[in-house]
Protein backbone atom coordinates (compact mmCIF):
# COMPACT_ATOMS: atom_id res chain seq x y z
CA UNK A 1 0.00 0.00 0.00
CA UNK A 2 2.84 2.38 0.79
CA UNK A 3 4.54 1.77 -2.55
CA UNK A 4 1.21 2.32 -4.32
CA UNK A 5 0.61 5.57 -2.40
CA UNK A 6 4.12 6.87 -3.11
CA UNK A 7 3.63 6.10 -6.80
CA UNK A 8 0.27 7.91 -6.77
CA UNK A 9 1.86 10.96 -5.18
CA UNK A 10 4.66 11.04 -7.76
CA UNK A 11 2.18 10.57 -10.61
CA UNK A 12 -0.04 13.37 -9.34
CA UNK A 13 2.91 15.71 -8.97
CA UNK A 14 4.16 14.84 -12.46
CA UNK A 15 0.77 15.61 -14.02
CA UNK A 16 0.54 18.86 -12.07
CA UNK A 17 3.94 19.83 -13.48
CA UNK A 18 3.25 18.69 -17.07
CA UNK A 19 -0.50 18.61 -17.70
CA UNK A 20 -1.99 16.08 -20.12
CA UNK A 21 -5.53 16.50 -21.55
CA UNK A 22 -7.87 14.80 -19.07
CA UNK A 23 -9.67 12.48 -21.53
CA UNK A 24 -6.39 11.13 -22.88
CA UNK A 25 -4.91 10.87 -19.39
CA UNK A 26 -7.92 8.92 -18.07
CA UNK A 27 -7.65 6.22 -20.73
CA UNK A 28 -3.88 5.89 -20.45
CA UNK A 29 -4.02 5.83 -16.66
CA UNK A 30 -6.65 3.06 -16.54
CA UNK A 31 -4.69 0.97 -19.00
CA UNK A 32 -1.35 1.56 -17.25
CA UNK A 33 -2.85 0.79 -13.86
CA UNK A 34 -4.34 -2.48 -15.10
CA UNK A 35 -1.18 -3.61 -16.86
CA UNK A 36 1.05 -2.76 -13.88
CA UNK A 37 -1.23 -4.72 -11.54
CA UNK A 38 -1.28 -7.68 -13.95
CA UNK A 39 2.50 -7.81 -14.03
CA UNK A 40 2.61 -7.41 -10.22
CA UNK A 41 0.33 -10.45 -9.93
CA UNK A 42 2.95 -12.48 -11.78
CA UNK A 43 5.87 -11.24 -9.67
CA UNK A 44 7.79 -14.08 -7.98
CA UNK A 45 8.14 -12.25 -4.65
CA UNK A 46 7.08 -9.18 -2.70
CA UNK A 47 10.46 -7.62 -3.48
CA UNK A 48 9.66 -7.78 -7.19
CA UNK A 49 6.02 -6.76 -6.71
CA UNK A 50 6.75 -3.60 -4.71
CA UNK A 51 8.10 -1.48 -7.59
CA UNK A 52 5.23 -2.71 -9.76
CA UNK A 53 2.75 -1.51 -7.15
CA UNK A 54 4.55 1.85 -7.17
CA UNK A 55 4.17 1.88 -10.96
CA UNK A 56 0.46 1.11 -10.60
CA UNK A 57 0.16 4.01 -8.17
CA UNK A 58 1.96 6.23 -10.66
CA UNK A 59 -1.07 5.74 -12.92
CA UNK A 60 -3.70 5.80 -10.17
CA UNK A 61 -2.91 9.29 -8.85
CA UNK A 62 -3.40 11.00 -12.23
CA UNK A 63 -6.53 8.92 -12.88
CA UNK A 64 -8.33 10.60 -10.00
CA UNK A 65 -7.39 14.09 -11.15
CA UNK A 66 -8.42 13.26 -14.74
CA UNK A 67 -11.79 11.97 -13.51
CA UNK A 68 -12.45 15.11 -11.51
CA UNK A 69 -11.33 17.33 -14.41
CA UNK A 70 -13.66 15.54 -16.85
CA UNK A 71 -16.57 15.95 -14.43
CA UNK A 72 -15.84 19.65 -14.03
CA UNK A 73 -15.45 20.20 -17.79
CA UNK A 74 -18.66 18.45 -18.80
CA UNK A 75 -21.07 19.21 -15.98
CA UNK A 76 -23.13 22.34 -16.48
CA UNK A 77 -22.17 24.85 -13.76
CA UNK A 78 -25.55 24.72 -12.03
CA UNK A 79 -25.44 20.91 -11.87
CA UNK A 80 -21.82 20.47 -10.72
CA UNK A 81 -22.74 19.83 -7.08
CA UNK A 82 -25.15 17.08 -8.16
CA UNK A 83 -22.65 15.56 -10.59
CA UNK A 84 -19.84 15.50 -8.05
CA UNK A 85 -22.11 14.15 -5.29
CA UNK A 86 -23.47 11.45 -7.56
CA UNK A 87 -19.93 10.58 -8.69
CA UNK A 88 -18.80 10.25 -5.07
CA UNK A 89 -21.80 8.08 -4.27
CA UNK A 90 -21.12 5.81 -7.22
CA UNK A 91 -17.48 5.52 -6.20
CA UNK A 92 -18.44 4.49 -2.66
CA UNK A 93 -20.98 2.02 -4.03
CA UNK A 94 -18.38 0.52 -6.37
CA UNK A 95 -15.90 0.24 -3.49
CA UNK A 96 -18.52 -1.55 -1.39
CA UNK A 97 -19.26 -3.97 -4.22
CA UNK A 98 -15.53 -4.53 -4.68
CA UNK A 99 -15.18 -5.31 -0.99
CA UNK A 100 -18.00 -7.82 -1.23
CA UNK A 101 -16.37 -9.51 -4.22
CA UNK A 102 -13.02 -9.51 -2.41
CA UNK A 103 -14.68 -11.26 0.52
CA UNK A 104 -16.08 -13.90 -1.80
CA UNK A 105 -12.60 -14.36 -3.30
CA UNK A 106 -10.82 -14.58 0.07
CA UNK A 107 -10.04 -18.26 -0.41
CA UNK A 108 -8.39 -17.75 -3.79
CA UNK A 109 -4.65 -17.21 -4.24
CA UNK A 110 -3.71 -13.51 -4.05
CA UNK A 111 -2.15 -13.41 -7.55
CA UNK A 112 -5.39 -14.66 -9.06
CA UNK A 113 -7.41 -11.98 -7.25
CA UNK A 114 -4.93 -9.32 -8.35
CA UNK A 115 -5.22 -10.52 -11.95
CA UNK A 116 -9.00 -10.11 -11.64
CA UNK A 117 -8.56 -6.54 -10.40
CA UNK A 118 -6.16 -5.84 -13.27
CA UNK A 119 -8.64 -7.30 -15.75
CA UNK A 120 -11.36 -4.94 -14.51
CA UNK A 121 -9.03 -1.95 -14.99
CA UNK A 122 -8.04 -3.01 -18.50
CA UNK A 123 -11.71 -3.65 -19.37
CA UNK A 124 -12.56 -0.15 -18.10
CA UNK A 125 -9.83 1.31 -20.32
CA UNK A 126 -11.17 -0.56 -23.34
CA UNK A 127 -14.76 0.50 -22.60
CA UNK A 128 -13.61 4.10 -22.19
CA UNK A 129 -11.81 3.94 -25.56
CA UNK A 130 -14.95 2.58 -27.22
CA UNK A 131 -17.12 5.30 -25.68
CA UNK A 132 -14.61 7.99 -26.70
CA UNK A 133 -14.19 6.69 -30.25
CA UNK A 134 -15.08 9.08 -33.09
CA UNK A 135 -18.02 6.87 -34.06
CA UNK A 136 -19.70 7.27 -30.66
CA UNK A 137 -18.51 10.77 -29.75
CA UNK A 138 -21.29 13.29 -29.75
CA UNK A 139 -24.09 10.73 -29.75
CA UNK A 140 -24.94 11.09 -26.07
CA UNK A 141 -27.43 13.67 -24.96
CA UNK A 142 -28.09 15.23 -21.59
CA UNK A 143 -31.06 13.39 -20.06
CA UNK A 144 -34.26 15.43 -20.09
CA UNK A 145 -34.31 15.54 -16.28
CA UNK A 146 -31.06 17.53 -16.32
CA UNK A 147 -32.03 20.13 -18.91
CA UNK A 148 -33.20 23.59 -17.80
TrEMBL record:
<keyword id="KW-0812">Transmembrane</keyword>
<dbReference type="InterPro" id="IPR036259">
    <property type="entry name" value="MFS_trans_sf"/>
</dbReference>
<protein>
    <recommendedName>
        <fullName>MFS transporter</fullName>
    </recommendedName>
</protein>
<feature type="transmembrane region" description="Helical">
    <location>
        <begin position="83"/>
        <end position="104"/>
    </location>
</feature>
<keyword id="KW-1003">Cell membrane</keyword>
<feature type="transmembrane region" description="Helical">
    <location>
        <begin position="110"/>
        <end position="131"/>
    </location>
</feature>
<feature type="transmembrane region" description="Helical">
    <location>
        <begin position="26"/>
        <end position="59"/>
    </location>
</feature>
<keyword id="KW-1133">Transmembrane helix</keyword>
<keyword id="KW-0472">Membrane</keyword>
